[in-house]
Amino acid sequence: MIQLTTYNFEFGVHNVDINLDKKFIQKIKKIKLPKHKFNKNNFNEKTDVELMNFLDLNLKPYFKEVAKKLNKEEYNLINCWVQKYEKTNFHDCHTHILTDYSFILYIECSEKSSPTIFYNPLYPYVDLSRLEIKPSSGKLLVFNGCIPHMVPPNEDNKRLIVSGNIAFQ
Question: Is the bond preceding 152 in cis, omega lying within 30 degrees of 0?
């Protein structure tokens, strides 16, 4: 008789819903976003220290909760940016910093806003599974930066997010 042992491991996408206050939303909406190839964003701009501090102040309890879930004690925001998706805007499949985590905070969206689609690591070479998450205002996702993800062409002019990278220690 053959004794077969199987070890499974997974990459999680941590989700928490936050009640965003109007000041928070207005602060994000005021940020100027240059038009890039896929959408409007300030990814390549100089690090917005004020935005980093604002996010750290407002999202600290949520990042601390994820840290606890990951058996880590601290976190450090590495960078962040804002992205606005108008009709037909999208974001190709990509990964972030492979050794750290990333986050997406949906600021504004509608029923027609495109989902974020996560794929298994090694996608597109190995296509085993995918997870589609529909955006809703105040939804915060934290995930390992090596998880490939993308946004298909958007169907409205509302999809606004803050995204970034975070290290847990």
Answer: no
